[in-house]
Amino acid sequence: MDSARLLFTVPIACLAFVFLWIFHKRISNPSNPNDYILRRIRLSMVSIGSIALLPILTVIGDYQWLTFTIMNAAFYAITIIEIDRYLYFLENKTKMYEVFAMSREQALCLPETKIIYEDLTRREIEITLSILSNLSYKRIAKDLFIAESTVSKHASNIYKKTGVKNRRQFIHRYRKKSK
Q: DSSP labels for the chain?
């Protein structure tokens, strides 16, 4: 039983730690090291590190209290990341208001410019805030740990949903409303 446990868990543990190392290397040098990004990096490392430890805990033996503690750490880290994202949206709600909260008269007069909050995904909202902060697609991609082409595709979807043709029109329309 012990040899089967070792033969099964050691390769998986090695893969998990290689993944953890690659993940750490990828996220450890953000181009925009603000508090929000640094918190997300630390919490992501706690979460991924906890999950990478599971095969090692299997080799050690049946210590459920330790396994549960490690899994709870991963769960809590992910939960804190989501709460932090929500708080980030609340802190930036004035920027979001520029995009989402048009008066009823404006919505009736300009139906092509109406943005319906429910039509944008959570990721599109993040990218919308970044675009309104005048960040480049490359910078947004690096900050959100996604490919630049993914940012471009999300931006294209945002522009279609908001009735504009490009980034310049989008920024002009929604920055003008806040003045």
A: -HHHHHHHHHHHHHHHHHHHHHHHHHHSS-SS--HHHHHHHHHHHHHHHHHHHHHHHHHH---HHHHHHHHHHHHHHHHHHHHHHHHHHHHTHHHHHHHH---HHHHHH-GGG---GGGS-HHHHHHHHHHHTT--HHHHHHHHTS-HHHHHHHHHHHHHHHT-SSHHHHHHHHHHTT-
Residue 19: name the closest of 56, 44, 39, 48 by CA: 48
Residue environment code for 149-179, b if the CB has 16+ CB neighbours within 10 A, otherwise e: eebeebbebbbebbebeebeebeebbeeeee
Provide the whole-model pTM. 0.51
- For the stretch 89-128, pLDDT in tens is 777 766 655 555 443 444 444 434 344 444 788 888 889 8
